[in-house]
Amino acid sequence: MVAELRRTLEGQSQGIPPQVRERLEGIIQGAVRTIETGAEIVAVGLPDLAPETVELAPVDSAVAEPVVAEPEPAEPAPAAAKPAVDPFRHGAHAEANRLAKARQLARWLWDRNITGEQVLGFTNKWRNKIARAAGVNPPSTLETWTVAVDLMARMEELAASGTQPDASERHHLDEHEQWATES
């Protein structure tokens, strides 16, 4: 790729002003150094070769020479920080554990008629208290709670369809006020 850039630069060098040519060579050298040091390249771009503005320099003769305005130097984009990949969090075993925990939370919340909007509106401290009351270890992320909210939405659809009234029955409605309002 670098050799191709240099060939292109050599082939079009007669039409490029010396200052721009020096700048392009500097960019190519910088790219080579970046590749050699092994740093990750986020974005590599060359400035437009077409002049941004053309001004006529005053000359005593009848012919004026065009002067190419120097383009503004572009700042390199900051490298995006990659989040550390947690193999447990995204593995099949983690998904199965998350689903099992979310099912238990969803059933517990459903029995007390606590909606998904309410759950997601609670503070993390209150959600942890609810998880302990439901008999599960409090989830470390909001991801498990969103899965539980999705499961509750499915249960709501099942209750609306009326096909399985036993599955959509709520058993602890007397505890709704105790858990639906954060204290």
Give a verbal description of the structure.
The chain is mainly α and 183 residues long. 50% of the residues lie in helices and 3% in strands. It has 7 helices and 2 strands. The protein has helices at 2-11, 18-37, 92-111, 116-121, 124-134, 142-161, 176-180, and strands at residues 54-56, 66-68. Strands 1-2 form a two-stranded antiparallel sheet. The chain is rod-shaped, with a radius of gyration of 32 Å. 11% of the residues are buried.
Summarize the structure.
The protein is mainly alpha-helical and 183 residues long.
Order of helices and strands: HHEEHHHHH
| Strand percentage | under 5%
Please tally the β strands and state the result: 2
- Main β sheet profile: 2 strands, antiparallel
Structural class: mainly alpha
Count the DSSP helices: 7
Shape, principal axes of CA atoms: rod-shaped
Helix content: 40-55%
Distance between the termini: 63 Å
For the biggest β-sheet, the strand order reads 1-2
Average pLDDT rating = 74
Oligomer: single chain
Extract low-pLDDT stretches. Answer: 39-46
Radius of gyration: 32 Å
Write out key terms for the chains shown.
183 residues, mainly alpha, rod-shaped
SSE layout and pairing:
Layout: H1 2-11, H2 18-37, E1 54-56, E2 66-68, H3 92-111, H4 116-121, H5 124-134, H6 142-161, H7 176-180
Antiparallel strand pairs: 1-2
Helix pairs in contact: 1-2, 3-6
